[in-house]
Fold these 2 entries.
Entry 1:
Amino acid sequence: MMDKTQKILEKFSFKKGDFADIRIEKGKGISIAIQNGRPEQISYDHDIGVGVRALIDGGWGFVSMVGTKSDEIEAALYKAIKIAKAVATKTKEKGMITEDYVVEGSYKVKYKNDPRDIPLEQKYEIIEEFEKTTRTFSDKIVSTNASIKNWFQKEIIVNSLGTKVYTEYGNLNILCMATARQGDTMQNVYLSKGTTFGWDEIEKFNTTQKGVELAERAVMLLNAQKPPSGKMDIVMDPSLVGVYVHESFGHAEEADSILADDSILKGKMGEQLGSEKIDIYDDPTIPGLRGSYCYDSEGTKTSKRQLVKEGIQIGYLHSLETAAKMGTKPNGAARAMNFNHRPVVRMGNTYIDAGDHTLEELLETIKNGVYLENSYGGYVDTAKGEFYFSAQGGHLIENGELGAAIQNVSMSGLCLEVLERTIALGKNLEFAFPGSCGKASQWVPVHAGGPPLAVKQIVVGGL
């Protein structure tokens, strides 16, 4: 199929500065969800299609199609070129592509225990056990929702510069959410695991044990203290650090946001953003994580990308186009959800690197404040640099030690405040925030994390 696709491109003539690529995608997967003891969804998804891009005279054209017939792909490329020519006469912001990076390569996933070989019935039984164990732990558990998803995808990427890449990968995700209620008090918790490894990772997860732990936490929070409100010193656990570095910082590092004037990091290359203790990376090459991949959706091989070194801004995440516009090298950050979408700049596995403090030392450093744990998601405005995150709970920090448990709690403020006010980093790096990241109406798997962080004067409050 790759050779046939290359021959389609060779039928068209492209002058210097023009560009076209063809991305063939075949994907399939299963999704199972159970809510409050009832099957909510059991579905099998199968995608097969082609995304075609053309850049002509600075104008972009994009066409997607279902199926992989050669004559239809050729017709789609013709349409994309026609659209690009029309756009070129109207657009003031001309597109461009770096022409110095031609890639030939392949990556084939290898499983110890292939999820595609696991019967649907076995997958259902695992998620059923997870949901039932959580729901039946106590009559105070009033709502549960558990799901498991696995997806396997193959891509062929060929472009007019000579790039030819074949890549395949798979993704597994399991989660359970629960709500506990006592009178007028309600508390929300959830637990998830995401991986690009095989089914053995799900077997190691032990859904019976995890369901009990999740339910115990939900019920415990009903009698925990209301969280304090106001500015105070905090310690963030790795899941809160993960959601922070992904949402508040990682999106601002995407070069298309920089070029669109939609990032607080625009113009800050080489500037001190925060504590010199902080190093931040995005690394899709880490085996097994949910945001791991070898080649992006433009065929560029990815790599470990350092974004902040000793608190100083040193890099961005790039596609072929953003790299060309900013005069630097592409680094494999262009990802597309499927053939119906064009690649845009995205993260993979984003994290703050470890420091040298134990959790006990972090608590002693803070003395009095709040320990926040178990992220429950949040919101960020990358242009304004504002964030709001919620945690499933935590503890008061009293005289350098963990004190009373607190209920669902929030933290909010300005994105760069966390970097500026970090005073100590834990030594245990943990990727504790597996998720799906939304941008440009696309969702892609990601992972994030870091060590616990001790941070001065952050706004916290109840939900």
Entry 2:
Amino acid sequence: MARDMTTGREGKHILAFALPIMGGLVLQQLYNTVDSVVVGQKLGDIALGAVGTCSALTMFAVSFAVGLTNGSSVIFAQLFGAKQLDKLRRNLSTAFCLLAALGLAISILGFCFARPLLKALAAPDAILDMASGYFRIYCLGLVFQFVYNVAAGALRSVGDSKATLYFLCISSVVNIVLDLVFVIVFHWGVEGTAIATVIAQGVSAVVSLVYMHRKYEFFRFAKGEFAFDPSCCGQILKLGVPTMVQMCIVSGGNVLIQRVVNDLGTVALAANTAAARIENYMFIPVQSMNNGLATFTGQNVGAGKYDRVLGGRRQARYIIVPTALLISLILWVFAKPLIGLFGVTGESLTLGIQHLRFIAPFFVIFALYMSTAGVLTGSGDVLAAACVTLSVLGVRVAATYIFNYGFHLGFPSLYYANPIGWAFGFIVVWLRFRTGIWKTKAVVKRGKPA
């Protein structure tokens, strides 16, 4: 159900909103994790590397959807907070049209140019055919991801984060079952895991649309209401393009880092794939609180309640920091069995363990960084948030290349750069927050900043 966050206890609202998102992100990560576990255990390290080397490209494609959806979600949240539901529907229909068209275009481009893109990443010849087959099929499901992201963003903007958890639970079960059937029973190899993912993404998109229509009257379109509005599109692009560009450049930076991984060989590729999958789970609690804080901020900025935004940020940090410390301890203690889940052995296993244990103590820095970034995003100060993220990426990519090609550190170059980027991001985003400029960035002008 919808959650009005403009009244009541700040921390309770943010946590109650973030927990279902957390569960949803866990389930979303299961797509990639199950693919990797099934591939690593049943098809070996080479096949695991083939799936892993596609990760940077898949994230680059999805960045378009997530970036524009984040921009539209800021508008949705502020309009909901201001109780301007007609404008909310108009922006929603425009977002659906825009994202569906973009998703279809990227699906076609990715399918046609999969092999050249992977060759540009210096994908080893031993995995190029498998990786190309996997990525082509994966691209067919991108249009479903784009549509789902709009629906999920709209539901989260009105405080309904539980719904996305239910959708992802259904699609994850579909994905897991089909992974096992297509790989173990039908022997379709890595292509089978891609087909399972595409079907699961289609299921989540359909279920989310049906739920929105049946559950919320203010999301139902009267005859002639579902249309593309150029003025709404301009506003969505104004807020969404900076975030989209930010995420695409971040994904592009990950592509550059993936090239370093590929240069290090198949042993490093398998180790990095396994460690990256575990890292993605590590980020989930902090990212969930960040999303919760962004939605909380959006609703309260729309209602003109800036004092609640400050209280919400403070309460969010009381939750995020202890959680980050607990995750760090778990990573350090259980690094070996976690990496071992993916079927890697020998030197790949050793490198993966080293990766996790090095970054574990620094994770609290990332938590502090994200606990403030959510305020900037939710307030509409998306350009500043994008610039901070791009700066963090630049520091991380530069450090990776310097460590690897300048100091010839090899595999450790991939994780030495992370805490450097996180520390830089925390300093910059904290300075931006302290200026108070974010209080002037509201899309819905209602109330005065305190």
